[in-house]
Design a protein that fits this description.
Enzyme class: transferase
Oligomer: single chain
Keywords: Kinase, NAD, NADP, Transferase
Number of helices: 13
CATH architecture of the largest domain: Sandwich
Number of domains: 4
CATH topology of the largest domain: Tumour Suppressor Smad4
Protein name: NAD(+) kinase
Radius of gyration: 29 Å
Structural class: alpha+beta
CATH class of the largest domain: Mainly Beta
Shape: globular
Family: Belongs to the NAD kinase family.
InterPro entries: ATP-NAD_kinase_N (IPR017438), ATP-NAD_kinase_PpnK-typ_C (IPR017437), NAD/diacylglycerol_kinase_sf (IPR016064), NADK (IPR002504)
Length: about 525
């Protein structure tokens, strides 16, 4: 069966995840070899973009190509690759005989991150406003809430602790407070009056008591990165779109400025915004529920087993005698799981001994960590604790899980990146001298005992973070402004100074000094 590019309708544009058969001359062969165009050396096309605006750009002739007929121009639409954040589809035939075995059950559609844009299938009515505990945030907070209630007619949710803020209450016994507090309280008198006029219109919730699932349409964060982490903690399943304003200290995850929040929020409410889907990790602790089965470890010659076999038996015990896939690979798991946006950290706590932690990947023993601990993080968390521990910084659109040791007692233990679809199991080594502590995004610190296991995999519920510009610009701006990534003095170019140094020994120091003054 053959087809021709000339037979393609003029209105046809590339769609996401669409594959183009390899062409010979003017015809396209879709024979059983399954060959597809690739885009190595910018010569072949991979249509996996999905960004609508880039389709028109891709139809323009490339450098050094003359305009031809309509069919030739249409051919060029399939020749130049449009902008895409996905990798090109790999060529599926290897040599004259080898190829990837087809399996219809494993075919999946992966949307290009560059095409991820926010849309509302019904108008958002409820908005959750999260603010950091800082007096400098009070004025922007009151201005935003006042505008959302009066202008946008939205139902605003706030944490109940906001109503308990002494700076926003007029019933505080000032005689019992310090002189500095009385001055600050008087300074915010106008802000307090505006808030008290809105107080009865606000809906409150309390963390740990109220369930916000399916109650919130939109989230606005005022503060630093911690406000976004807090929003992620509040929603342990589907998360509403999050718009984060920078009012903190670092602001790596907060790309918006509060100067013209009315215009920016209006654009988002109208659906004019790009999204970054920040993946989260689903973590669950499985406690040791029963004693070690005698059949797992023979009494005779038990001490002769290799350490790796001891670990494998320990893994079998933790999984109730099952050696196959442990846990559930879907996200319909027990309710004791928790979703984290940055990282889950296993450390030695107050113990003076090294942590001795075993790592299993999809049921296979990988290695043991001997050091202060281990960080399992998302790409979003790669710029947090993992970056301080020496891990690479990964763009949040990359599907991956980072495994980073904390001060390993080994010169060759480097951080690794594993596919996002795997499931990690972390347990205390049987011969470990101590237990470990585990925390989730810096919260819910608890002990991990011998026989317990921590299971980590990628959740199906990401955090839809709204971009101020786009996925690429926001991330690199955060690297430059928040972490001062790759900041150094520029190397001076070769100028007259280099010519003088190469001219001979008759040059004097005065001439060098004059050149320095000239450069200044």
């Amino acid at each position: 069966m053959t087809s021709s590019y000339n037979n393609i309708p003029a209105s046809t544009t590339p769609t996401p995840a669409q594959k183009v058969p390899k062409a010979t001359g003017s015809s396209v062969s879709s024979s059983s070899n399954g060959s597809y165009y690739d885009d190595h050396d910018n010569q072949l096309l991979h249509v996996n973009s999905g960004r609508q605006g880039s389709a028109a750009a891709s139809s323009a002739p490339g450098p050094g190509i003359n305009n031809g007929t309509a069919s030739d121009d249409l051919h060029m639409r399939w020749w130049w690759r449009t902008r895409s954040l996905n990798a090109p589809s790999p060529f599926q035939q290897f040599g004259p005989c080898g190829r990837i075995m087809k399996n219809s059950a494993m075919v999946m559609q992966i949307q290009d991150p560059a095409s991820q844009r926010l849309t509302w299938y019904k108008p958002p009515l409820t908005v959750l406003v999260i603010k950091k505990k800082d007096s400098q945030v009070l004025l922007p907070f009151v201005q935003l809430v006042e505008w959302l209630v009066q202008e946008k007619r939205m139902v605003v949710w706030v944490e109940s602790a906001v109503l308990e803020d002494k700076l926003l209450r007029d019933d505080v016994k000032l005689e019992q407070e310090s002189t500095k507090f009385r001055q600050v309280h008087a300074h915010y008198a106008g802000v307090r009056a505006r808030f008290l006029a809105l107080r009865e219109k606000l809906v409150t919730f309390k963390d740990g008591r109220d369930d916000l699932t399916d109650r919130i349409d939109f989230i606005v964060c005022l503060g630093g990165d911690g406000t976004l982490l807090y929003a992620s903690q509040l929603f342990q399943q589907s998360v509403p779109p999050v718009m984060a304003f920078y009012l903190g200290s670092l602001g790596f995850l907060t790309p918006f400025q509060c100067d013209n929040f009315q215009e920016q929020v209006t654009n988002v409410l109208e659906g004019h915004a790009a999204l970054t889907l920040r993946s989260r990790l689903r973590c669950s602790i499985h406690r040791k529920g029963e004693r070690r089965k005698e059949s797992l470890l023979p009494v005779v010659g038990a001490n002769l087993l290799k350490p790796s076999l001891h670990r494998q038996l320990n893994y079998v015990e933790l999984n109730n005698g099952q050696t196959g896939n442990f846990g559930c690979n879907n996200n319909n798991c027990p309710n004791n799981s928790i979703l984290v946006l940055n990282e889950v950290v296993i450390n030695r706590g107050p113990s003076p001994y090294l942590s001795n932690i075993d790592i299993f990947l999809d049921g296979k023993y990988i290695t043991s960590v001997q050091g202060d601990g281990l960080i399992v993080s998302t790409p979003t968390g790669s710029t947090a604790y993992a970056a301080a521990a020496g891990a690479s910084m990964i763009h949040p659109s990359v599907p991956a899980i980072l495994v980073t040791p904390i001060c390993p007692h080994s010169l060759s233990f480097r951080p690794i990146v594993v596919p996002a679809g795997v499931e990690l199991m972390i347990s205390i080594s049987p011969d470990s001298r101590n237990t470990s502590r585990v925390s989730f995004d810096g919260r819910n610190d608890q002990e991990l005992n011998h026989g317990d296991s921590l299971r980590v995999t990628t959740s199906i519920y990401p955090v839809p973070s709204i971009c101020a510009q786009d996925q690429i610009s926001d991330w690199f701006d955060s690297l430059a402004e928040g972490l001062h990534w790759n900041v150094r003095k520029r190397q001076k170019c070769l100028d007259e100074l280099s010519d003088l140094t190469a001219s001979g020994s008759e040059d004097t120091l005065d001439e060098f000094d004059n050149l320095k003054i000239y450069d200044a």
